[in-house]
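testing teh design pipeline on a random one, pls ignore if ur not involved
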């Protein structure tokens, strides 16, 4: 009888743990594996590995445009698709960081249906990630973990800093773009003033290995760790904690209010959404077929999840 009651208890706990499993309400199809997601009012930009950025209407979930960049030649001289590493949008300008020839990178600005190369692959800069600071300035990072501020109009570097000797992983700007947090393979998160590049603070108590991705909203930091930890830092209260995963945590995100967090939480590519304050798990997002690359909250109750395949899952929490 005790054994039977034990199994009933285990079944009940398991059922309660996964009672809030959610399947996608809609699935958006892209031109290839997704590398970056950006929201712009009623549009969603999805950068892909196939020389393209797909643009979707958020309300209809329909693809409304695709921006194509030129293919490149590989080491054998054959034409191949150019992987887009990151994208961003500001007004009518779209920033595109892509794979160049001989291992270099191309940094384009797309405006009025014209593609302008502002940093080409011949400069042999191994740029890993780039975003707009404002209409005339870009912030970008090299694989060597150097951070740069670039003046578009005058075509000069205004400022630079060596973050650490560890390999760069990812950076995220605050919503007002006054701060930037950089993640690297050391597990530390370095917070900088985004214009002066003055180091403000270093967070390193929760991740002990490579951090793949980071998000920053309302003085809350969240990180995705190779150590199977999703770490949370509250900058104002100077406290932190982590949530365990049974697999590498590849992607994380915070909701606009930073009250909810989300992270890839198991080997089946499911995503756990949790309450940042109580640490309680709220939902598990399922039906993701490949390794996660991006989680993006549209608002407090809607989010997109992208992976290495050509699908972006759209979820409504509670449905």
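output:
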């Amino acid at each position: 009888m005790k054994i039977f009651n034990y199994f009933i208890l285990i079944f009940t706990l398991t059922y309660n743990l996964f009672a809030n499993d959610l399947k996608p309400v809609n699935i958006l199809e892209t031109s290839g594996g997704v590398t970056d997601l950006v929201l712009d009012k009623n549009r969603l930009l999805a950068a892909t590995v196939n020389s393209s950025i797909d643009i979707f209407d958020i309300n209809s979930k329909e693809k409304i445009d695709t921006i194509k960049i030129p293919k490149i030649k590989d080491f054998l001289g054959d034409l191949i698709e150019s992987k887009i590493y990151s994208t961003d949008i500001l007004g009518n300008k779209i920033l595109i960081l892509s794979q160049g020839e001989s291992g270099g990178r191309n940094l384009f600005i797309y405006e009025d249906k014209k593609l302008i190369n502002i940093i080409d692959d011949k400069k042999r800069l191994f740029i890993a990630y780039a975003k707009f600071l404002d209409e005339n300035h870009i912030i970008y990072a090299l694989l060597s973990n150097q951070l740069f501020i670039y003046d578009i109009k005058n075509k000069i570097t205004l400022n630079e800093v060596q973050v650490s000797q560890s390999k760069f992983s990812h950076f995220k700007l605050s919503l007002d773009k006054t701060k930037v947090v950089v993640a690297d393979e050391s597990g530390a998160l370095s917070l900088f003033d985004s214009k002066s590049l003055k180091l403000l603070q270093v967070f390193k108590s929760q991740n002990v290995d490579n951090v793949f991705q980071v998000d920053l909203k309302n003085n809350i930091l969240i990180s995705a760790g190779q150590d199977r930890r999703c770490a949370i830092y509250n900058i104002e209260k100077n406290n932190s904690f982590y949530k365990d995963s049974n697999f590498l945590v590849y992607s994380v995100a915070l909701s606009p209010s930073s009250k909810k967090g989300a992270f890839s939480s198991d080997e089946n590519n499911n995503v756990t959404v949790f309450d940042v304050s109580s640490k309680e798990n709220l939902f598990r997002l399922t039906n993701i077929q490949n390794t996660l690359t991006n989680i993006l909250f549209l608002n407090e109750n809607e989010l997109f999840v992208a992976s290495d395949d050509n699908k972006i899952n759209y979820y409504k929490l509670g449905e």
